[in-house]
Amino acid sequence: MSHLFWYPGYTLPLKHVTRADNCYLFAADGKRYVDLESGVWCTAIGHSHPAVLQALEQQAGRISHTGYSYSNEIVEAAARAVLDLHGFGGGKCNFLCSGSEAVEFSVRVAQTVISRPLLLTLSDSYFGAYGAARRQAADEWFAFDWQACTACETVGDCSAKCPHWAAIPFERIGGFLFEPGSSSGLVRFPPPKLIRRIAAAVKANAGLVLVNEVTTGVGRTGKWFGYQHYELAPDSVAMGKGIGNGYPVSVAALGPNLVERLGDRPVLYAQSHQNDPLGAAVTLAVINTITKDDLIEKGRRIANLLKVGLEGIRARTGKIGAIRARGLMAAVELADASPVDFTTRVQAHLLRAGFIVAQRPGLNVLRIDPPLTIGEPDIAGFLETFEAVLSDQTGGGKDGNE
Q: Which long-range contacts (CB under 8 A, 24 or more apart) does 131-135 make?
């Protein structure tokens, strides 16, 4: 792979994967691996899902790309399905190619309609690879460090008596862009009281609530979307990764309030592949499959097995410092005394045993994000292997691919 740029901080131990099926990857030598990170949160319903493959084949055989002057009914059908998930009757969608784009488009719409200069966000959020959301310039954004709020013992709502809350300049804030749980890959979940209070304060000033669901959406957290754990009523939702199940499509969904406020004003965002039929067909196939097969409920059952199993390993080995999990979105932070290279060895031994997990670069954090379609035997096999690896002080453990 010498002719490719690779993502900084990550190694490439599997250079020759030849095919994939559900949660399994197969290397050129025939060895099978269980993909417990879903291709970086992407394959929500598993690699090479038949419904997605069928949608790709059928739509590509009709029309895959459209320009600015013509479209296809599948795009409207997919938009209706997405809007229905959010209760956005009267809303509108824009289909794009990446989560970064969906977030950026949502931000540009918001900046078109708000009168106050700042958008509020949480300090550890990640919103994309480029644009205003990536830069988070001081004249456009206020980043709130919420870590002190995790230990708040105050009964009732946040108030100006709290110095952390008082530091938020609500008089200058026109919107709140919320990422409900990724924390730049560390998987941290902000307190519901705090998030509801921020959203209420922003809305009271005629502001907007925008949500980034690129990593937390499409069933990942045990509900369709992460914001549903916070009882929010957002004005826009950005979706990516799982909504395309590995195909590069994303969606910015705008609610009716935001659509009405925008009116006929143009949003200065043009992209050659926006609202392409092929991406829309995949989106519709993913939504229909999750609904028909009740995969969110199945994912919740699997998530419970994973969480209980990890808690048991923590109790028996003493090697796990923290487990942060919601649905099938989990981070395991190894004990404080564990050096980063120990975590790297654990990840490497898991890989040799046939299990792919993600290590947050430079940290003793492993991330586990299997698809909603993973089976109980694969979770059981991972837990057994993980405990064996952690129990070996050298970061060893049994190899194998069973």
A: 131/100, 131/103, 131/104, 131/107, 132/104, 132/107, 132/108, 133/100, 133/103, 133/104, 133/107, 133/177, 134/100, 134/104
Q: How far is CA 125 from CA 85, 133, 147, in A?
A: 24, 10, 12
Question: What are the tens digits of pLDDT across the range 212-221?
Answer: 999 999 999 9
- pLDDT category of residue 2 using cuts at 50, 70 and 90: confident
Domains of the chain: 17-48+294-391 (3.90.1150.10), 50-292 (3.40.640.10)
CA atoms within 13 A on the CB side of 38: 30
CA distances (Å), 219 to each of 213, 243, 318, 325, 329, in order? Answer: 10, 10, 31, 14, 10
CA atoms within 13 A on the CB side of 320: 23
Q: Output the pLDDT for position 155.
A: 67
Question: Which percentage of the chain shows pLDDT scores above 90?
Answer: 79
- Report d(CA 302, CA 40) in Å as an integer: 19
Residue appearing with tokens 């025939």? 30
List the structure tokens of 347.
């990840």
Higher pLDDT, 181 or 155: 181
Q: Which of 119, 134, 253, 140 is nearest to 184 (CA)?
A: 134
Which residues, in sequence order, are CB contacts of 7 under 8 Å at separation 6+?
A: none
Mean pLDDT of all residues belonging to the chain: 92
In 3-state terms, what secondary structure has residue 221?
A: coil
Task: Say how far apart CA 100 and CA 58 lie, in whole Å.
Answer: 28
Quick check: helix, strand or coil at residue 169?
coil
pLDDT at 394 over 60: no
Give the integer Cα–Cα distance in Å for 182 and 194: 17
> Would the pTM count as exceeding 0.90?
yes
- How far apart, in whole angstroms, are the C-alpha atoms of residue 59 and residue 38? 25
